[in-house]
Write a structure and sequence with these properties.
CATH topology of the largest domain: 2-enoyl-CoA Hydratase, Chain A, domain 1
Low-confidence stretches: none
Distance between the termini: 36 Å
Mean pLDDT: 94
Number of helices: 10
CATH class of the largest domain: Alpha Beta
CATH architecture of the largest domain: Alpha-Beta Complex
Largest sheet: 6 strands, mixed
CATH superfamily of the largest domain: 2-enoyl-CoA Hydratase, Chain A, domain 1
Number of domains: 2
Structural class: alpha/beta
Length: about 260
């Protein structure tokens, strides 16, 4: 398992790399559980400001579930429960409290597509390919319905799920679920630039604001505003808010304390 998920940290950025290039970085049970554990560790580590998810090699971000190796020596009940790990991983990412970025090159399919869209932002290279091919093998992409319909017009997501067709990065960008599309040789720099920007922001405010975004998503306007209103008062009571305003007035860079 340690070889199938690589974890590194630099300048407040925790990078989680699915390391199964020979399997197009397909999701095994071990990889999914490892990602959940890594996200939990990143959440608990105050030095981590941003989490990046990517795949090893240049062929795939993640081609989905490892259909050939996910049911060996397991009962139907065990397999059913294990399938819930992907849903729990999506919830872990939503509840992380820190920005997440999917760095996508090559194939991004099925569960891998859902994993990318469960991240806050997606930066893709021009050679990225997205799709939900489950229908072609007699399955339906149930678990990724939530991240897909939260990231593009629902009827477009349904069309992709019903047809199983694959789309290139330019069409994916038009559908609105990509943050940015860049040439292959600029992917690393684009992700580094975005992570540096996000890591420079006040952590306490980022957590409060990001949590509120996911909390009110899809709720009625009156309910959402009733929750958001008091959060502004909470925000203004933070040390980072006071520091940010002082730095602005004094024309200097702020010194965030995460409080």
């Amino acid at each position: 398992m340690a070889d199938e998920l690589l974890i590194s940290t630099s300048d407040g950025v925790r990078t989680l790399t699915i390391n199964r290039p020979d399997r197009r970085n397909a999701l095994s049970w071990g990889v999914i559980s490892g990602l959940r554990a890594a996200v939990a560790e990143a959440k608990a580590d105050s030095d981590v400001r941003v989490v990046v998810v990517c795949g090893a090699g240049d062929k795939a971000f993640c081609a989905g579930a490892d259909l050939g190796g996910m049911a060996d020596n397991a009962s139907v009940a065990e397999v059913h429960d294990a399938r819930g790990e992907l849903a729990r991983l999506f919830l872990d990412l939503y509840g992380l409290g820190k920005p997440t970025i999917a760095k996508v090159r090559g194939y991004c399919l099925a569960g891998g597509f859902g994993l990318a869209l469960a991240c806050d932002l997606v930066i893709a290279s021009e050679d990225a390919i997205f799709g939900t091919p489950e229908i072609n093998v007699g399955l339906w992409p149930y678990m990724i319905t939530v991240p897909l319909t939260r990231s593009m017009p629902p009827k477009k997501a349904l069309e992709l799920m019903m047809t199983g067709r694959r789309i290139a990065a330019d069409e994916a960008d038009r559908l609105g679920f990509l943050t940015r599309v860049v040439p292959v040789d600029e992917l690393e720099a684009a992700v580094d630039d975005l992570t540096a920007t996000l890591a420079s922001k006040p952590p306490a405010v980022m957590r409060l604001g990001r949590d509120s975004f996911y909390s009110v998503w899809g709720r009625e306007a009156s309910d959402a505003l009733a929750q958001l209103h008091p959060l502004l008062t909470v925000n203004t009571s933070l040390e980072d808010a006071a520091e940010g305003i002082s730095a602005f007035l004094e024309k200097r860079e702020p010194r965030w304390t995460a409080r």
